[in-house]
Amino acid sequence: KIAAAGIVGLGGATFPTQVKLMPPPGSKAEIIIINAVECEPYLTSDHSLMMEKGEQILVGVTLLMKAVNVNKAVIGIENNKPDAIAHLTKLAAAYPGIEIMPLKVQYPQGGEKQLIDAITKRQVASGALPISTGAVVQNVGTAFAVYEAVQKNKPLFERVITVTGKSVAKPSNFLARIGTPMKQLIDACGGLPEDTGKVIGGGPMMGKALVNIEVPTAKGSSGILIMNRKEA
């Protein structure tokens, strides 16, 4: 169902989710790690998803645990999101095997290898796959998409995307269909500010500057950041 729904890693790398859930021969998963770190400055799509869809995320995590046959999952959240930590901790009490782990704010902790190290204290050797540590890492948005695919038969055709920037009139998170022109989302936030220096697809650290804003959003689009000239 995950493969049929077209689910990929929604943290930005867009690696096919079903491939990660089928470890190569000789390696075995011991733990599912859910990446809810969202360490890119400005982006809040994962944060808003956790606040609104906490229960569904936990069902998605349970399904991921079942897929790789493990009984332990850890959701890592940086402690600049205390409301999300409190909300999910309360809900997770009803889900055996799922632990919420607050992490200190540290870039680039959202990277897979850095997150495995932060949560399990195991390091992925150079050239080795993350599964060599027994960990399978999935983004929190992916866990929600898995819930929708398995429980609702819903393909991945929409995602939460942040549109933000210091001069943006109404910074917002939208549940937008894949393929929505970025201009449409920017217009919904009040349009491009006059002092726009750069429009970045993604966050300020890993995102790429866009040549124009008519481009469509893709599965890996976590945000649109509008930087003013001074900041750019």
In short:
Helix content is 29%, strand content 21%. With 232 residues, the chain is of the alpha/beta class.
Tags for this entry?
alpha/beta, four-stranded parallel β-sheet, 232 residues, 29% helix, single chain, five-stranded mixed β-sheet
Textual characterization of the structure:
This protein has 232 residues and is an alpha/beta fold. The protein is built from seven helices and nine strands. It has helices at 17-20, 45-52, 54-68, 82-92, 112-120, 140-152, 182-188, and strands at residues 31-35, 73-78, 98-103, 135-139, 158-164, 172-177, 196-201, 208-209, 223-228. The strands form two sheets. Strands 6-5-9-7-8 form a five-stranded mixed beta sheet, with helices on both faces. Strand 2 (73-78), helix 4 (82-92) and strand 3 (98-103) form a beta-alpha-beta unit. Helix 3 (54-68) crosses helix 6.
Tally of alpha and pi helices: 7
* Secondary structure: number of strands: 9
Q: Roughly what fraction of the amino acids lie in strands? A: 15-25%
The major beta sheet can be summarized as: 5 strands, mixed
Q: Which percent bin holds the helix content?
A: 25-40%
Order of helices and strands: HEHHEHEHEHEEHEEE
Q: Major sheet: order of its strands?
A: 6-5-9-7-8
Judged by helices, strands and strand pairing, the structural class is: alpha/beta
Q: Overall mean pLDDT score?
A: 97
Categorize the overall geometry.
globular
Radius of gyration: 18 Å
